[in-house]
Amino acid sequence: xKLIKLTNISSAVLVLQLxxxxxxxxxxxxEGRILLTEVPQNGSNEIGSxxxxxxxxxxxVALLPGGNTAxxxxxxxxxxxxxxxxxxxxxxxxxAKKESTDHFQIFEMKLSSGKVRQITSCEEDCTNxxxxxxxxxxxxxxxxxxxxxxxxxxxTGMLDGTNIQQVTFSxxxxxxxxxxxxxxxxxxxxxxYPEEGAPKLLVMRPDGTKLELFYKSDVGTQLCSGAVETxxxxxxxxxxxDTESRVASVSYNLPLHSHKIxxxxxxxxxxxxGSYLDDRLLxxxxxxxxxxxxxxxxNPVDGTIRELYKSEGYNVIGAVLVQAYQRPKNLPSEVQPLxxxxxxxxxxxxxxxxxxxxxxxxxxxKIEILGIDSTLAVVDVEDDGSFYLKVEANMPFxxxxxxxxxxxxxxxxxxxYIRPNERRACVGCHTGPEIxxxxxxxxxxxxxxxxxxxxxxxxxxxxxxxxxx
Length: 469
Prior knowledge:
By secondary structure, the chain is mainly beta. It has 2 domains: 11-321, TolB, C-terminal domain (Neuraminidase), CATH 2.120.10; 341-452, Immunoglobulin-like (Sandwich). The protein has 1 helix and 33 strands. The strands form 8 sheets. Strands 16, 17, 18, 19 and 20 form a 5-stranded antiparallel sheet that branches. A 4-stranded antiparallel sheet has the order 3-2-1-25. It has a 4-stranded antiparallel sheet with strand order 4-5-6-7, with no helix packed on it. β5 and β6 form a beta hairpin.
């Protein structure tokens, strides 16, 4: 059945078109169809570099295979974006709003019938939903404060709209959430305070614990999209600079040391990726001298692209295939909401990723814990360079190392937070997540942890057993 894409027609005709589209699926499903976001070209300057879209006039369409035809699935919304398909291939999460004055909320659609239900009812924009195991989902919600502008956070909840809770607490901007097969969430993240940083891929557990670096681009190149995981255990993404754009990949096991360029193009030639059949990819890209993004099928083995679909007057982005997916592992959570702190252990602040500093005059002997507004504490480290902290839960902080006379040696590093009852450990300073810990007991753990609280006084309470509320 051939469907003609029409514009400016009545709602009744659009509904009829959708019913005809669904009837074309002999088993009542939409398996094998491609869902994608179309954004009006007049809003192309607002597209950004990921699927976290809030452009008015955006819509989600379903593409019929074998032809350049599609049907609008979200004609009752003034804007809709970021489709995510459930693991059984039967439902779609998406972000949308019905009126221009509304906030974006998360909705779910039954793909076989087009029936829609609203999940969130927030007073801020909610976007970029993904499915999690056991009837849960994650999404991004605006949480910017007067002090920290333009920040947001990851939230999780049940698909019935209950148990919605915030799981990240750093002054950063998250986008392009991806549920990895190992159960963790991968996100494109950019620090927004105290200054804006380059986007990085960070990974964490669904409860917000163990947030750490997964991949960052080399100096002079910037990540432009989130990552897509394939069955070959490779992850693909878009990155670029002022002169070129490229599709690249890293391996799951060694993401910081396995970078490979798949194909290169002109500046802003590539926008976003989605998984497709047989480890091929759905690529949003521009042809040479083209003024809008179209959809293509990318073969990552030889770097060839086959055009699949283009839409007159729209940019095509954020494509996803409707099919049953492998459900990620369901990771247990160590978070205990009634706890008020978590633990952080570092083995040696003078270990910098290659070797420990040999020159005693270069070694740091203290750490400074920096909060959003002020220094939270200055702590003497042990003779082996280790420290052990009990940190107030859900409080953003950074760490920098100091000499004996309080000169900065390294840092400040990235933003951290500790979830209630979380236990975190690092090998050294700026060592990255791929270095194994030393086979020895740090001196710091032979003593009670130093308590770090969010207050205006520098109060060091070594060897205090209980957290003071």
